[in-house]
Each structure stands twice: as structure tokens, then as C-alpha cells.
Description:
This protein is mostly helical. It has helices at residues 4-17, 22-29, 33-40, 48-58, 62-65, 83-93, 98-105, 109-117, 124-134, 138-142. It contains ten helices and no strands.
Amino acid sequence: MLNMTIFAERLSEMMFDANLSAQKMADILSIDRTSVNKYLCAKRLPSATVLIRLANYFNCSIDYILGLENEYYISARKECPPFRERLTYLLQKKNKTKADLQRKTLIRESTIYNWLRGDFYPDADNLYKLSKYFDCSIDAVLGRTES
Length: 147
């Protein structure tokens, strides 16, 4: 499970260092200010797309933002492919099945199906589960880095 307090602290520090208000951060991320305030108060985690925008803006890894690693900078960042393509690639590369993924992560079968159809991205908690399952970073799960 992800620690929202660490995420809130990291985001607050990065915004402070960049001299960004909640409104300016919201404008950069194309979201409303109340969402940024909820992030800063550790009441909510952002969606995968907002996490990607944050990491791209601050030139850091998603794993850093979420408090899963202490290394700030990311090297050799790539543009994220559609998640359905990335999940299919990871399943094939790691020689895993959808059934095994569902069984070991307890992610609903319908949720995995919707990801593979391209209907939506996983939330932060599911990204964490996927990173543990595939034994890689969240950035690798999303295709921002190779491993």
C-alpha cells in the first residue's frame, strides 16, 4: 500500500523548490486546485496520467514522487506507450498470464480486461501492485523507463 503522507511531503517540497502555488501546479497539470490541495493534505493520490505529468514536469521518477525510492532524477525517460500495449508487453516479457496476474495481485479480472482494452489507466495503488508483481519500478510499468 502506498503512503499518501510521503507523497504529500514530496510534492510539497518539489512545489516549494520550484516556487509553485497550488493554483499554478493545478494549471500545469490541467486539473483543478482542489485536487492539488487534496494531494498536499494526503487525502488523495493522483491518477496515473497526473503522476506522469508530475514526473515529467519535475523530471523525476514516479517512484520518487510516491516515496518508493530516494533517487530523484530519472535517466533515459521515454514517452509512455498506451497502457494496454505496455501491459501486454510486460505479460509477454515476464511470461505471465492474465489469470496469474489477477490471482497474485487480487486485482479484479474486469479491471485487467478494461486495461487491456485501453479503457483506462490503473490508479496509483494498482500501479504499485503491478510494479511488485512484475518486479520493476512504476516508471517501467508505465513504459517511462525500461526497468
